[in-house]
Write a structure and sequence with these properties.
mainly alpha, single chain, 2 strands, 214 residues, two-stranded antiparallel sheet, globular
Length: 214
C-alpha cells in the first residue's frame, strides 16, 4: 500500500451500533435504514483518492462528476499522486476539469508526492484540526474537508450542511420539500448525534441509485 494510502478500509466498526441508535431515535431515519439494510459507507484507505473525487465533484451534479472522473482515470491511467503530478494542468483540463480544478488537483498531487501533505497526522487529530489543515490547501473548502472526514477518516458525527444532497434529502423526508434553513436542519439532526455521518450517508442513499462514494 502506498505511504499516502493510510486510512481505514471497509465498513466502520461503529456502523451497526450507529444504525441501531438512529433507528431508535428517529422513525423517519429508521425507515431509511431499513430500506438500505446491508449497505453502508466503505473506506478505501486512500486520502488522495477522496480529495480528488471531492474536488472533481465540487459544485456539479453526481452524474457530471462521475463522467469527468471516468475521463480523468483514462487520462492519468489511475488517479494516484505520482500519475496526476506527472500530467500538465492542460492535460487535466482536457479530461474535463475546469482550469482551476486542474490546478488544485495537480498542486495537491505534488504535495502528496513531496511529503508536504502528510495524511498520517490526520489520524489522531480531532475533526476541527483536520478541517483547518485541509483548508490550508488551495482548492479545498469546508465541504471537501468534510468529505475527507466522512469517507476517508470515517468520523462518525459530521453534518455537511452545505451539501446540496443533504439539503434536498432533509427537505424531502423531514419538511414539505421546500428549502430549509441551516438552523432548521441542525435542529432536525440533533437526535442523530453522535452518528450524524451515518444519518447523512442514508440521506444521500435515498437520492441516488448507487451509494455515494468519495
Amino acid at each position: 500500500m502506498p505511504r499516502w494510502a493510510s486510512g481505514p478500509l471497509g465498513q466502520p466498526a461503529y456502523w451497526h451500533e450507529a444504525r441501531d441508535a438512529l433507528s431508535a431515535a428517529d422513525p423517519v431515519m429508521a425507515g431509511l435504514i431499513a430500506r438500505y439494510d446491508g449497505e453502508g459507507l466503505v473506506g478505501q484507505g486512500d486520502p488522495f483518492l477522496t480529495l480528488a473525487r471531492s474536488i472533481v465533484a465540487q459544485q456539479i451534479s453526481v452524474h457530471a462528476a462521475d463522467s469527468i472522473w471516468a475521463r480523468l482515470e483514462a487520462c492519468v491511467d489511475g488517479v494516484t499522486p505520482p500519475a496526476v503530478a506527472a500530467r500538465s494542468e492542460e492535460a487535466l483540463h482536457g479530461a474535463g476539469l475546469t482550469r482551476r480544478k486542474a490546478g488544485y488537483l495537480r498542486d495537491i498531487a505534488i504535495g502528496f508526492v513531496s511529503g508536504e501533505i502528510d495524511p498520517e497526522r490526520w489520524q489522531g487529530a480531532d475533526d476541527d484540526t483536520v478541517i483547518a489543515d485541509l483548508l490550508a490547501l488551495r482548492g479545498v473548502g469546508r465541504w471537501t474537508a468534510e468529505m475527507v472526514l466522512i469517507f476517508h477518516l470515517q468520523r462518525p458525527d459530521v453534518l455537511p450542511l452545505a451539501d446540496i444532497g443533504v439539503q434536498r434529502a432533509i427537505a424531502r423526508h423531514y419538511g414539505d420539500g421546500g428549502k430549509m434553513g441551516a438552523d432548521a436542519m441542525e435542529a432536525c439532526a440533533a437526535c442523530w448525534r453522535p452518528w450524524r455521518s451515518v444519518a447523512v450517508w442514508h440521506l444521500w442513499r435515498s437520492l441516488d441509485p448507487l451509494p455515494v462514494a468519495y
